[in-house]
Amino acid sequence: MFMSDLSFSVFTKPWKTQTIDRLAEHLKKIGFDGIEFPLREGYQVEPVHAVRDLPDMVRRLSDLGMAVTSVASVLQEPIFEACALAGVPIIRIMANFDLDQGYLYGESAVRASLEKALPWCRQYGVRIGIQHHYGTGVANSMELRHLLEGFDPIWAGAIWDAAHSALAGEHPLQGLQIVEPWLCMVNLKNVVYRPAESPPGGEARWERFFTAGDQGLSSWPQVVAALRTIHYRGTICLTAEYSDESTVDDQIAHDIAYARSLVGEGWL
Fold first, then answer.
1. Half-sphere exposure of 183 (CA within 13 A, CB side)
2. Fold held by 7-263
3. What angle (nearest 5°) sits at the alpha carbon of residue 35, between those of residues 79 and 29?
4. Exposed, middle or buried: residue 166 (CB in 10 Å: 0-12, 13-18, 19+)?
5. Could you give the percent of the chain with pLDDT greater than 90?
6. Rounded CA gap, 18 and 240, in Å?
């Protein structure tokens, strides 16, 4: 692990138009130690200006008592340079691809992109974190491990996601043990399946509905117990992903309070 202590961050994607200072003050007040920042077009710092603007944003947040624990972005050299200048340790990506040429071809293409980026990891001292996600691509813990096998975990790590692991039918301890050698961050969110609108007399359809931490397929108490079992030290990121986006402020306040109550005062 890059970090010796347990900390809570939040992905700030839902607050695209909020000023960073005001957002940081709010998130710190409700219980977060830091943020994962979406270093993407249209957000408070854009990729084209990352080298210039990301260090300034990180310094402002630090003055407010908030760290930037990771960015969600792309594997391009200026992003690595910006993270190095700002002291951001992880660039989060996902490994999604189409299946026209087969799953293993898509996996090989992602591995090739990681190989290309490794010199930037070493040059700038920044790690790539790969998250699994339902759908086409790397969807479960074993697929994530298979993708990462052979890569030095110092530079290419696993970001394990509680909701997507639950969608894959994994027990949290199973999923975490599978990726443990590469584990660099943990995402907390939750999800259920619910009936979707279907044509009369047609095949039943189901949709994924992202919901509060204590209302979904993933048992956060089991996740926390599993993290204790593997002696996890690092960042737990609450992704603030809710299918009902109008509830994000209330839900994230509820979820960080719930997560902290599960962790308690002493970690191990």
1. 23
2. TIM Barrel (3.20.20)
3. 155
4. buried
5. 93
6. 15
- 38 has which bridge partners? 72
| Tokens describing residue 155 | 């530079």
For 53, 98, 138, the CA distances from 105, given in Å and listed in that order, are 37, 10, 12
What is the gyration radius of the CA atoms in the chain, in angstroms?
A: 18
pTM tops 0.85, yes or no: yes
**DSSP-assigned letter for residue 65:** T
The full set of domain ranges for the chain reads 7-263
The string of pLDDT tens digits covering residues 50-102 is: 999 999 999 999 999 999 999 999 999 999 999 999 999 999 999 999 999 99
Q: Answer yes or no: are the C-beta atoms of 107 and 145 closer than 8 Å.
A: no
β-sheet bridge partners, residue 159: 131, 185
Cα–Cα distance for residue pair 163/170, rounded to 1 Å: 10
Number of other residues whose CB lies within 10 A of the CB of residue 37: 27
Q: Where are the beta strands (DSSP E) in 99-154?
A: 127-131
